[in-house]
Specification:
By secondary structure, the protein is mainly alpha-helical. It is built from 5 helices and no strands.
């Protein structure tokens, strides 16, 4: 399973992707609730607690990292959870890509100027 992006978790916890994103976040919460911490796991924050902490401060990258790591650990322990989480991840990444939230990466070559805009009303002149 590919690692779950911290940025994706932060965006969904913060309400990005509108109602679709909120539904996807709630489906993760449902998955976590259905699948309580495995017996014999060392005492630590429950997966649901970690999810709630990110919900409270969705801009906190450390909390997103902690949630991504906790999800990965749980998936490593349980193949059924891993399969459900992989389905959730595919759905969430698809919704995030189509939510109107754009992200661009510029690399390679020698760019002198890069302009990124959204919702332009009127003309743009670049010299």
């Amino acid at each position: 399973m590919d690692p779950i992006s911290e940025e994706l978790l932060m965006a969904l916890a913060g309400g990005a992707a509108g109602s679709a994103g909120q539904q996807i976040w709630q489906s993760l919460r449902g998955l976590v609730r259905r699948d309580r911490t495995a017996e014999g796991e060392p005492p630590q924050r429950s997966l649901e607690d970690v999810l709630t902490l990110l919900e409270q401060r969705p801009e906190d990258a450390e909390r997103a990292r902690e949630l991504a790591a906790a999800l990965r650990r749980r998936a490593e322990q349980d193949a059924d959870f891993a399969a459900a989480l992989a389905r959730w991840q595919q759905e969430s990444e698809g919704a995030h890509r189509t939510s109107g939230i754009a992200s661009f990466e510029v690399s390679g070559g020698s760019q002198h100027s890069v302009v990124q805009v959204q919702n332009v009303h009127g003309g743009i002149t670049l010299n």
